[in-house]
Write a structure and sequence with these properties.
The chain has eight helices and four strands; from the N terminus they run ααααββααββαα. By secondary structure, the chain is mainly alpha-helical. Among the domains are: 6-83, Winged helix-like DNA-binding domain superfamily/Winged helix DNA-binding domain (Arc Repressor Mutant, subunit A, Orthogonal Bundle), CATH 1.10.10; 90-122, no CATH class.
C-alpha cells in the first residue's frame, strides 16, 4: 500500500505532525521553550544520542521552527533559537502540558503553568480569539475550509458535530443529503 507523505497531506493536522509529530522533536522544542540553546545542553537535558539530536535539530531548522546561529568561530559552534513559527507552537505545548497533568500524572503535577502577575497556577483553555469564548464540543465543530477538497468536505459533513449543528438549526452542510432541505 502506498502511503501519502504527511507533509503534503490535505489535513493540517497531518502536515503539522510531519514537522513535529516525532516525540524527540516535541521534546527539543520543549527544551527550547525552557531556554536551552546549545547542542550539548539539549543532549544533556534529553539524554538523546548525538546523531539523533543532529537529525532532529536539522529537521526543525529546515522546517523553520528553529534558527541555527553560530556563536563561536573556533571551533565552529551554533546555538538554536525558536523562530516565530516555533514560538507559535507554544499553545500546543501548553495544551500537552495540561492534558498530561490531567491524565498522566498519578503522583501529582511536576510542571505547571503560573500567572506571572499573581503567582497562581492556571489551566490553559482554548478560546476563540475573536470573542474570547471557550472552544467547546457543544458549541463548535470542525468544518471544511475554503481550500478543502470535495472528499474532505464530504468527510467532515458526515461528522457528528456537523450533523448536530445542522439539526439544531445551524448552517446547512453543503453536499450532505440529510441536511439538503435546510439549504
Amino acid at each position: 500500500m502506498r502511503k501519502t507523505p504527511l507533509d503534503t497531506a490535505p489535513c493540517p493536522i497531518a502536515r503539522s505532525l510531519a514537522r513535529v509529530g516525532e516525540s524527540w522533536s516535541v521534546l527539543i522544542l520543549r527544551e527550547a521553550f525552557y531556554g536551552t540553546r546549545r547542542f550539548d545542553d539539549f543532549q544533556k537535558q534529553l539524554g538523546i544520542a548525538p546523531n539523533m539530536l543532529s537529525r532532529r535539530l536539522e529537521m526543525l531548522v529546515s522546517e523553520g521552527l528553529l534558527e541555527r546561529r553560530q556563536y563561536c568561530d573556533k571551533p565552529p559552534r551554533s546555538e538554536y533559537l525558536l523562530t516565530p513559527r516555533g514560538r507559535d507552537f507554544r499553545p500546543v505545548m501548553l495544551a500537552l502540558l495540561a492534558w498530561g497533568n490531567r491524565h498522566f500524572s498519578p503522583d501529582g503535577e511536576r510542571v505547571v503553568l503560573v500567572d506571572r502577575h499573581t503567582g497562581a497556577t492556571v489551566t490553559p483553555v482554548l478560546v476563540d480569539a475573536a470573542n474570547g469564548r471557550p472552544i467547546t464540543e457543544a458549541d463548535h465543530f470542525v468544518a471544511a475550509g475554503p481550500a478543502a477538497s470535495e472528499r474532505m468536505r464530504a468527510r467532515l459533513a458526515r461528522s457528528d458535530g456537523a450533523r448536530a449543528a445542522a439539526a439544531a438549526g445551524g448552517p446547512p452542510i453543503p453536499g450532505d443529503p440529510q441536511t439538503a432541505g435546510a439549504i
